[in-house]
Specification:
Layout lengths: L1 H33 L3 H5 L16 H9 L2 H32 L3 H13 L8 H10 L9 H20 L4 H9 L4 H12 L1 H17 L2 H6 L9 H5 L11 H33 L4
Length: 281
């Protein structure tokens, strides 16, 4: 029995190892090509390691930083990601607290609406959303967080509700007896208890927001220079099909490295938060 289990574990480890290599391989290829000269990438040696003839050093990174407005795109990406994540965490945690503590048909209907929103494809809404954002003047990096709140609320409310059901209501009752009003009870008592789920939801939303391309592309007013990094990357494709592959690869690496670092540092919190949010009430 022990031998069968060991064999099964070895086979499973081998399969998972192959899948890991398949997922990591494209990242290494982007990294290698970001260090090559343009001619080496486009002449069929894209799958070869850099050598003395093809190595370009950090030239592609310098080009990416200076030629297309990378720093301004980085700023807009940071503004959109941080403002949207903060808004989602505060509003959705408060909404989940209301849903779990107020036992009524309205709260139950709200919960199911949030859950249903997770299965609605974005393509069904994008054209109407773009027109609505223009009419409401939400086409800037400083207001698009309102739109992201709507799209990120489904998962956030679902996870917060799952964790909130495990919090004893007696803690909140004790705080109210001590003189706390509902706002003080939430921010001073409930919110600190929500820390594991706050971290996991924040990381998941950050990875989505940082890499999102379609929604900013449809909503942001690019005539004013509003571009996130994913939108900026496409501008390395010039006229007549010419693509600046070196700077493009460098931009992709500068875009994915921060979010990979954040994920690696916080992955244990994601697992804890998802497990906590899966508690049944």
């Amino acid at each position: 029995m022990e031998k069968k289990r060991t064999l099964r574990d070895n086979i499973l480890s081998g399969i998972l190892g192959i899948l890991c290599i398949a997922w990591v391989y494209p990242i290494f290829m982007i990294l290698f090509n970001s260090l090559k000269k343009e001619t080496s990438i486009s002449t069929g040696s894209a799958f070869q390691l850099p050598n003395s003839e093809s190595f370009a050093g950090l030239a592609n990174y310098v080009n990416a930083l200076t030629s297309k407005g990378f720093l301004s795109a980085l700023w807009y990406s940071l503004v959109i990601t941080i403002s949207s994540v903060v808004l989602i965490l505060i509003c959705c945690s408060m909404c989940a607290w209301f849903i779990t503590r107020v036992n009524s048909k309205v709260s139950k209907a709200l919960y199911y609406l949030f859950v249903f929103s997770m299965v609605v494809p974005f393509q069904m809404l994008m054209f109407t959303l773009s027109a609505t954002a223009d009419r409401l003047h939400l086409s800037s990096p400083y207001t698009i967080c309102i739109i992201y709140l709507g799209f990120g609320a489904g998962l956030a409310v679902f996870m917060f509700c799952g964790f909130m059901k495990s919090i004893p209501i007696t803690i909140e009752e004790a705080a109210m007896i001590d003189g706390c009003n509902p706002i003080q009870t939430f921010f001073l008592v409930v919110l600190p208890i929500l820390k594991p789920t706050l971290i996991s939801v924040g990381i998941l939303e950050t990875m989505w927001l940082w890499n999102d391309y379609l929604l900013p592309y449809l909503v942001l007013d690019r005539t004013k220079g509003y571009m996130t990094i994913p939108i900026l990357i496409q501008y390395f494709r010039g006229s007549f099909g010419k693509v600046e592959m070196g700077p493009m690869m460098a931009s992709i690496m500068m875009n994915i490295i921060p979010i990979i670092i954040v994920y690696l540092l916080c992955q244990k919190h994601i697992i804890k938060g998802v497990a906590a949010g899966a508690v049944k009430g």
